[in-house]
User: Fold Alpha-amylase family protein from Candidatus Mediterraneibacter pullicola.
Amino acid sequence: MPKKTGRNGSAAKTALAQSKIIRDEDERVFRERLARYYDELRWLYMELYDNNDMFAELCSQMKVYYNQRNRKLKALDQKREISGKWYRKRDMTGMMMYIDNFAGNIKGVQEKLPYLEQCHVNYIHLMPFLDSPKGRSDGGYAVADFRKVKPELGTMDDLAELAEKCHEKGISVCMDFVMNHTSEDHEWAVKAREGDGEYMSRYFFYSDPSIPQEYEKTVPQVFPTTAPGNFTYLPKQGHYVMTTFYPYQWDLNYRNPRVFNEMMYNFLYLANQGMDIIRIDAVPYIWKELGTDCRNLPKVHTIVRMMRMIGEIVCPGIVLLGEVVMEPEKVAPYFGTVEKPECHMLYNVTTMATTWNTVATRDIRLLRKQMDIVCSLPKEYTFLNYLRCHDDIGWGIDYAELKRWEMEEVPHKKYLNDYFQGKTEGSVSRGELYNEDPITGDARFCATTASMCGIESAGFEQDDVKMSRAITKDIMLHAYMFTQSGIPMLYSGDEIGQINDYTYRDNSEKALDSRYIHRGKFCWELAGRIREKGSVQNRIFSALFKLEAIRKEEPVFDADAEVYTKDYSDLSILWIVRKAGPEELHAVFNFSDECKTIWMPETTEYADLLTGEKRMLEKVNLPSWDFLWMKKEIRI
Ligand code: GLC
Assistant:
């Protein structure tokens, strides 16, 4: 081969030298990050697995995934490392959606990005899209292959391309990482079913019913009606396999280091497709111990902490969002400590359930107490706030407090369920029960925000007055969500007031799971009416648009603002104060059917953030189910 000479030769040399500089810099960055976490990671790994070889493999695989991470993502990692808590900015607005319902497939979502921008959304949660068997998928939460997209939705390349396009528009992408279980069709499960001991040890297999029976004594049921029990008998194999959720979702055994390592490789692989936020599905369940309830065990925290460190080493730009649908004292520990953080972000689940409790009871006391608990937590804790998501509402509220007011759990839950089904006099809500337990009488609830606020019933009755009231309530609840610190997360369809979809009942694969009532197709025809003045869609969409714009604009919404609730003489009035710098926001919400007179704390000038008007105020009339965002300058 002739030697390269002249200008071309030296250009090639420069390019070579440059790529060596980049490689050296890459090496340095990785070594530095690994060194930062090595001791703690090794300590925790050894404590759990006591296996040097598997730990060495984990470290070398982290390097492999780091090397595979593309330049753009590495640059984003560095940018985010420097800027710190990028996901805590007050301009964040999220939206969660099913790819097929929203836009058919991944390419369709890419085409719809302008609509999402119109919604001010800069964080999208794409509901489970990995390969999952039809009819046995639990809405995609039974993953058959962690490296393959459902063919009808597209390919991994489509996903990476969508993530890249989103990044160009400043939109972050979230996906689920279902780590508690795999589908029974996953390669490991198939091999385990064939009797391969290596693969059986990745799940919980028992030939004898005695251990499953022991577990059943202490482990509660997630789906008591649709999937009773925590084990499934496999008649051909003569074995029981642990299935906390549906029988086709086999629980992974994290006592086996091979399971941990391989799942971490899957996590890194997915992060490398450009995911910004990884939602760790059903995380409290990932460690099992006989004689316990198999929820929130200390080793769960060891695993999440290790996952956080692995992320910090390979892809520090990503955020871990923990799905911990538990009472507040169980949720907060998933943030870890300041020195040893676990999840970056958690769902504000009790606040969500308590908000709906307040809608039904028109009594803000419990919500105020819940807000006070959240406000007393360190400001670094970031919550994801929401009104509705793809799951049912489990009525996980503070029953001990309710008992003090002589309200008992079972009748109160019944009251809530009756109210939201529209069975109570005066209730405008519509929806269905979920997993009604015939033994305990317990039941959860499913419906969309709009249907719970009365938009469905008002539309059905063609009653304009009721419709206006329902829209006001819907907007007020969103304003309440936007008032909280953390990231507001809309559920696709809520921005246009989409109501329940009852067609799931005609689909044999969905009919038994009433959560599909709020997992309907996004109605583009209705979305087409967002510019039509006075339409339901226009009223809701433009109001949310405005709230998001104000939130983005006003420093009182900063994550670090001081937030507290104010004592007010009326039990239907929730009053939240946010203070940042010289400004103070008074956010007042009327959870009642009557118009109320609100007496301001002092007669002074307030700026109404919704109208932009500045007024001297002593008192103000607040219509039923409406709210105020009044800002006051603190004069020093
Ligand atoms: C999570 C999901 C839920 C699913 C369960 C089992 O709780 O949100 O939809 O059924 O995990 O994977």
Remarks:
- The mean pLDDT is 95.
